Structure to design on (336 residues):
């Protein structure tokens, strides 16, 4: 049996970015691993997530989640294999879901991880279809936008990790028509393969034109991952008492100047629109409900999620940079 590692490699925040992050904002370093205390486990991470929300954490501003600290490791969703344990509840050989990615090994308190079954679904699926992106899609559609059977639903950033799943979940919940936007013709084609009724390339024509052609009778629900011109176009397309689930605004995450709001926001008054922002972490009570439904949809072939992989801890910064630039289809992941 090979000896256990005493050191590991991790990515730390070297500096805060101005505008789009660059490689210079990250640093790869080696650190010593602490000895295990009672109730702790040593985990070898096998796959980690990079997500758009992490861009906000690179700024030193107060938000719903603490910012990353200079010279400290970044963190985020990861799945790893337990290689040592001083816990009766979590044993060597099990795989666990936890929140300390961006490093190859990590010591964790066993009570703070979730044991997963990689025989039922691959480790990566627990960071995508069965994980935070899937739950985000479900929460946004059900609890936030209060989607109803027969609704027409528009989803921006539809080829991303949340967007892909949001369209499929909307169909599974009985949406009459699901429309998506994406940044390449290849991504548009993939959305149609995944069951979207219509999709358009927002880089080929103004969003308002693409949405009008894809949903000529208007929309009832807008799931917003992008903000900016997408939100403005959606407000124009929303029907009476339409609802917006404001999940993200990736179009402005790297902005260095204040961003103007939708010029047509006053339409929300006459149409009786509801625009509601949300953070998935505020809806933990829906996690078990979603996992149960998602398992059924997966078994029935109604739910699929693409994955874009990069390999190695040293590739994590570029994977994150590429994610913000739209280089992924589905979930962006780093294999370790």
């Amino acid at each position: 049996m090979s000896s256990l590692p005493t050191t590991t490699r991790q990515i730390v925040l070297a500096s805060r970015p101005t505008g789009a992050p660059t490689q210079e904002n990250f640093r790869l370093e080696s650190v010593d691993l602490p000895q295990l205390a009672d109730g702790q486990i040593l985990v070898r991470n096998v796959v980690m997530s990079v997500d758009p929300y992490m861009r906000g954490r690179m700024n030193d501003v107060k938000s719903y989640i603490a910012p990353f600290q200079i010279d400290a490791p970044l963190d985020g969703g990861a799945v790893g294999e337990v290689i040592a344990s001083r816990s009766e509840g979590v044993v060597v050989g099990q795989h666990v879901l936890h929140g300390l990615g961006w490093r190859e090994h990590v010591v964790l308190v066993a009570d703070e991880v979730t044991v997963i079954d990689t025989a039922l679904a691959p480790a990566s699926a627990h960071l995508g279809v069965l994980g935070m992106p899937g739950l985000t899609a479900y929460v946004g559609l059900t609890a936030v936008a209060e989607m109803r059977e027969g609704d027409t639903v528009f989803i921006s950033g539809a080829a991303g990790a949340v967007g892909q799943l949001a369209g499929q979940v909307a169909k599974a919940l009985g949406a009459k028509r699901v429309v998506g936007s994406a940044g390449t013709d290849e991504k548009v084609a993939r959305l149609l393969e995944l069951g979207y009724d219509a999709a358009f390339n927002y880089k080929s024509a103004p969003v308002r034109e693409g949405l009008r052609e894809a949903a000529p009778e208007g929309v009832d629900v807008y799931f917003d991952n992008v903000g900016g011109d997408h939100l403005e176009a959606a407000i124009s397309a929303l029907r009476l008492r339409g609802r917006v689930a404001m999940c993200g605004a990736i179009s402005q995450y790297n902005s260095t100047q204040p961003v103007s709001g939708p010029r047509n926001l006053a339409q929300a008054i006459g149409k009786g629109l509801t625009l509601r922002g949300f953070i998935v972490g505020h809806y933990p009570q829906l996690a078990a409900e979603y996992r149960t439904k998602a398992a059924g949809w997966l078994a029935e072939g109604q739910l699929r999620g693409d994955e874009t992989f990069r390999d190695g801890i040293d590739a994590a910064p570029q994977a994150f940079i590429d994610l913000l630039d739209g280089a992924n289809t589905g979930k962006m992941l780093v294999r370790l």
About this structure: The two ends are 21 Å apart (CA to CA).
